[in-house]
Design a protein that fits this description.
The protein is mainly beta. Helices cover about 5% and strands about 50% of the residues. A four-stranded antiparallel beta sheet has the order 3-2-1-28, with no helix packed on it. The chain has a four-stranded antiparallel beta sheet with strand order 4-5-6-7, with no helix packed on it. A four-stranded antiparallel beta sheet has the order 8-9-10-11, with no helix packed on it. A hairpin with a 5-residue loop joins strand 4 and strand 5. The longest helix is centred in the first third of the chain and has 18 residues. It is globular. It starts with a helix and ends with a strand. About 50% of the residues are buried.
Length: about 350
C-alpha cells in the first residue's frame, strides 16, 4: 500500500509540473573555473526562456535531485578527498538556496544521487562504491547507514582497472535500488527493507567493455534502458522484481568515442534520448515501441562541447542539455510528434554546467 501511495504522489507531482508554465530549474556545476556552485532559475515551459534567481557556494556540486515537493535538494560534492559528501539544501519558493546539512559519503567522487524520500543513495565513482543514507522524517537530515563496494573484471585496463559505481536509482515498484557496476560490466541489485538497503546480487550482466553508466525506466516500469560509457550503446531490458532481462543493444555513439553519458525517456514514453561526448558530440534520438520496449534510432542532434547530463521539461516541450566545456545549457525545443530537437538559441550561460533538475514553484 505504501508503494501505491508513493506512486500516486509522484504522478500527482508530475501532473502539477506539467500544468505549470513557469517552473524552477536547479543547476549543478564543477567549480574552480569560474563557477560558484549551485544555481537556481525560473524556466518558462511555454517559451523556453530562463531567468536567474540565486546561487549557493559549494565545491563541485556535479549532480543533484529534488524531493517530490521541490522543497529540498540532495546534492553531491564530487571531490577526491574527505570533503566528498551528500549535501541537503533548502529550496525556497523564490529560488533562494540554503545549505542545511553535509554528510560525508565515505567514498570519493560521488557523481550521482537519488532518493525515495526515506533513503538517499550516492554512486561514488573513484571510491568504487554506493553509499546509502537514512533520511529524517522531514528528509532534511541524513545519516550514512552502509556502503557497498563495486568490482572489477572488464577488459579495458585503463578505464576498468579499479571499481567504479556511476549511478544508483530506485526501481518504479519501490522495492529495489539498481546500481551500475562500471568496471565489472554489470548492474547490481539491492533490496529495500524500510530504511535498510540489502545486497540482492546481480540484476544483469552486459557485454564486456561496456562500462555501464546511467539507467532510465519506461513510464510504465516494464522496461529499463542503460547507457554505457565505453561501448557507447543503449541496452534495453525487461524489468521484473529487481532483475533485468536484456532484449536489445543498439548504438548511440557512432563515433566510438567511448564517452557515452546520459539517457532519458520523454514524458509520453514514445522517445528515448542519449548523450555522447568526446567526438561527434550530441544526442541520439530513438523511437520507443511501448509494447515491446524495443528502440529504433531515428536522428542525431549535435550539441555544444561535452554534453553530460540533460533533462526534459515535465510538459515534454523542451530538452535542456548541460554542455560542460561550452559553459552553457543548450535549450532545445522538442517536437512531441516526431521526437526531433531544434536549437532555440536561448542558451543558459553557466560555467561548467553539469546537471539540471526541475521543481514546481510554490
Amino acid at each position: 500500500m505504501r508503494n501505491t501511495f508513493a506512486m500516486i504522489s509522484l504522478l500527482l507531482g508530475g501532473c502539477s509540473l506539467q500544468a505549470q508554465e513557469k517552473i524552477m530549474l536547479l543547476v549543478g556545476t564543477y567549480t574552480g573555473n569560474g563557477s560558484k556552485g549551485i544555481y537556481s532559475f525560473t524556466f518558462d515551459q511555454a517559451t523556453g526562456k530562463a531567468e536567474a534567481l540565486d546561487s549557493l557556494a559549494m565545491r563541485n556540486p556535479s549532480y543533484l535531485t529534488l524531493s517530490t515537493d521541490g522543497r529540498t535538494a540532495y546534492v553531491v560534492s564530487e571531490t577526491a578527498d574527505e570533503q566528498a559528501s551528500l549535501n541537503i539544501v533548502d529550496v525556497k519558493s523564490n529560488g533562494s538556496l540554503r545549505l542545511l546539512t553535509t554528510t560525508p559519503t565515505a567514498g570519493t567522487d560521488p557523481c550521482y544521487v537519488a532518493t525515495n524520500g526515506r533513503i538517499a543513495v550516492t554512486a561514488n565513482y573513484s571510491g568504487g562504491s554506493m553509499s546509502a543514507f537514512r533520511l529524517s522524517a522531514d528528509g532534511r537530515q541524513a545519516s550514512l547507514a552502509t556502503r557497498f563496494l563495486g568490482n572489477i573484471g572488464g577488459p579495458d585496463a585503463s578505464r576498468q582497472a579499479a571499481p567504479h559505481v556511476h549511478c544508483a536509482c530506485f526501481t518504479p515498484d519501490g522495492r529495489y535500488v539498481l546500481a551500475t557496476d562500471f568496471s565489472a560490466d554489470r548492474i547490481l541489485s539491492f533490496s529495500l527493507r524500510g530504511q535498510t538497503v540489502v545486497a540482492n546480487g546481480t540484476a544483469a550482466r552486459v557485454s564486456p567493455d561496456s562500462g555501464p553508466r546511467h539507467l532510465a525506466f519506461s513510464n510504465d516500469g516494464r522496461f529499463a534502458y542503460l547507457m554505457s560509457e565505453l561501448s557507447g550503446r543503449v541496452t534495453a531490458f525487461r524489468y521484473s522484481d529487481g532483475r533485468l532481462q536484456q532484449i536489445q543493444e543498439i548504438v548511440s555513439d557512432s563515433a566510438g568515442a567511448r564517452g557515452g553519458a546520459d539517457v532519458h525517456i520523454s514524458p509520453d514514453g514514445r522517445f528515448l534520448y542519449s548523450s555522447n561526448r568526446l567526438r561527434d558530440e550530441g544526442i541520439a534520438i530513438f523511437a520507443v515501441d511501448t509494447n515491446s520496449g524495443l528502440l529504433t534510432r531515428i536522428a542525431y542532434q549535435p550539441t555544444g562541447a561535452h554534453p553530460r547530463q540533460f533533462s526534459i521539461t515535465p510538459n515534454g516541450r523542451f530538452l535542456l542539455c548541460c554542455c560542460r566545456d561550452s559553459d552553457k545549457i543548450q535549450v532545445f525545443s522538442r517536437d512531441t510528434r516526431t521526437g526531433l530537437l531544434t536549437d532555440t538559441h536561448q542558451d543558459i550561460h553557466v560555467r561548467q554546467a553539469v546537471c539540471a533538475a526541475f521543481a514546481a514553484p510554490r
